[in-house]
Design a protein that fits this description.
The chain has four domains: about 90 residues, no CATH class; about 80 residues, Alpha Horseshoe (Serine Threonine Protein Phosphatase 5, Tetratricopeptide repeat), CATH 1.25.40.10; about 90 residues, Tetratricopeptide repeat domain (Serine Threonine Protein Phosphatase 5, Tetratricopeptide repeat); about 140 residues, Rossmann fold. Helix content is about 50%, strand content about 10%. The strands form three sheets. The protein has a six-stranded antiparallel sheet with strand order 1-6-2-3-4-5. Strands 10-9-11-12-13 form a five-stranded parallel sheet, sandwiched between helices. Helix 3 packs across helix 4 and helix 10 runs antiparallel to helix 11. The termini are far apart.
């Protein structure tokens, strides 16, 4: 009262700050004010009409009367505006302000509890999608204790349960709640088909379709997706379920948008490999290694893919589409050496990507250029310790660039290694005469490339 009264007397029309709507409405009633009180929320506005301290009507959106009062008083983060009385407003409210405030408070508490309960399930699903299964199980137990009739709750509990009995119990409960639900029926079918193959508990799950897997599985028999790059991976036709793959990409993209999750990046890489998109797979596997350097599987799988892409002649063409920025200098040399800079000049984004990741694993800082003109600009900006140069380049070929480098007193001592698809003794001789220290041909062996660089880098 002491705070509101001076404001009201000095400024009968305007904004009121620092008061809850309920407290302010009680003040209007006690002082027997005749006015319109506008309550503003982030999404809407509501009007409460008073005459001599009596609330006789309210409006917001499509609601009026008591329903409008309850809606307005349940809003969060509001401010109050006092306006002149509105003429020609009919009376729709007969109940006292006190009774209205009590009922509004009860409804607000109910809404808050329902929202909190829904958030609990949402958090549990998010944790399960990120493979935080222990946390997901704790949240789902809490949720199902309050809502034993939740179809989604039992479905997700069946997906993270690690023993047969728990899965069967969860799916039975989900089936009783929604016996005709196609997702529940599909989940039951997957489990029944996999049940007899499970050799131990706890058992693993397919990261793409949640099907239970035996301990040594490398392929999911349900969605046909490969879980690792095995010996025959690149020789097989990949016939994975496209719908499941797209859903998995959406799921793991949500996870990686929220957290630095090495496992989610790894599975994104494997999805794209199953879809024969080696460039995107390389990007995500590289990120998985950086986020989870202690996981030997990630680095082993990355190296297999690197070797395959480097040895595949078709990947070395200069017309492949871009796969993103790979100029990442965050990798620290495992040998504790000073980080050396290598300028990689190649017209193929894919080749630059393969080389950047292979050298990045050894602690080199990579500078990229897609043509000769860009390379000369980057050379002047960065002063690399070694240049890896292709001969076939847009705008300026590698031989011309090499001659410019060797004629410049500032750059002539920087070792240049030619890496190109051009083979033959004449090309090698021409490269040697132009001033290169080594001549390697594509397709190439990443380990041989690293060895050559380490032999010549200053």
């Amino acid at each position: 009262m002491e705070k509101i009264e001076p404001i009201s007397e000095e400024k009968p029309s305007g904004f009121m700050h620092g008061f809850t709507p309920a407290n302010f409405l009680q003040y209007v009633e006690m002082e027997e004010k005749t006015c319109t009180v506008r309550i503003n929320s982030k999404k809407s506005a509501g009007y409460l009409y008073f005459e001599d301290g009596v609330l006789f009507n309210a409006e917001t959106d499509d609601l009026s009367g008591r329903e409008a009062v309850y809606e307005i008083l349940c809003w969060e983060d509001t401010n109050i505006e006092v306006q002149e009385a509105s003429p020609n407003i009919s009376r729709k409210i007969q109940r006292s302000l006190g009774a209205l405030l009590i009922e509004a408070a009860r409804l607000k508490d109910e809404n808050s509890a329902a929202t909190s309960h829904a958030d609990l399930l949402e958090d549990a699903i998010s944790a399960a999608e990120g493979h935080h299964f222990k946390n997901a199980k704790t949240l789902l137990v809490r949720f199902l204790q309050k809502d034993t009739r939740s179809r989604d709750g039992w479905l997700w509990f069946s997906r993270i349960a690690e023993d047969v009995k728990a899965v069967e119990m969860s799916l039975n409960n989900a089936f009783k709640i929604a016996p005709e639900d196609p997702e529940i029926l599909d989940e039951i079918k997957k489990f029944q088909q996999a049940k007899n193959r499970l050799d131990k508990e706890p058992f693993a799950r397919c990261p793409f379709c949640w099907t239970p897997l035996e301990s040594d599985a490398i392929t999911c028999l349900n969605c046909r997706c490969h879980l690792v790059i095995h010996d025959l991976f690149f020789e097989m036709n990949h016939i994975g379920n496209e719908k499941i793959q797209k859903e998995a990409i959406e799921r793991y993209s949500r996870v990686t948008a929220k957290e630095e999750n090495a496992q989610a990046h790894y599975w994104l890489g494997m999805i794209y490999l199953n879809m024969d998109n080696s460039e995107k797979a390389l990007t995500y596997l590289d990120l998985a290694v950086k986020l989870g350097p202690q996981e030997k599987l990630y680095s082993a799988q990355l190296n297999i893919l690197l070797n395959h892409m480097a040895s595949n002649r078709s990947q070395s063409s200069n017309d492949l589409s871009s796969v993103g920025d790979t100029n990442d200098s965050t990798v620290i040399s495992l040998q504790g050496k000073i980080k050396r800079k290598v300028l990689v000049v190649d017209g193929s984004p894919t080749t630059r990507k393969v080389i950047s990741i292979a050298l990045g694993q050894k602690g080199y800082e990579i500078i990229e250029a897609g043509d000769g003109i860009e390379a000369l600009s980057r050379l002047d900006e960065t002063r690399p310790d070694l240049i890896l140069l292709d001969i076939i380049l847009p705008k300026m070929d590698g031989y011309k660039m090499l001659s410019i480098i060797k004629e410049n007193p500032e750059f002539k001592d920087i070792p240049v290694i030619i890496l190109t698809i051009k083979n033959g003794i004449l090309n090698k001789l021409k490269g040697k005469v132009a001033g290169s220290v080594a001549y390697l041909t594509k397709p190439f062996d990443p380990s041989q490339l690293v060895e050559t660089i380490e032999r010549h880098i200053s």
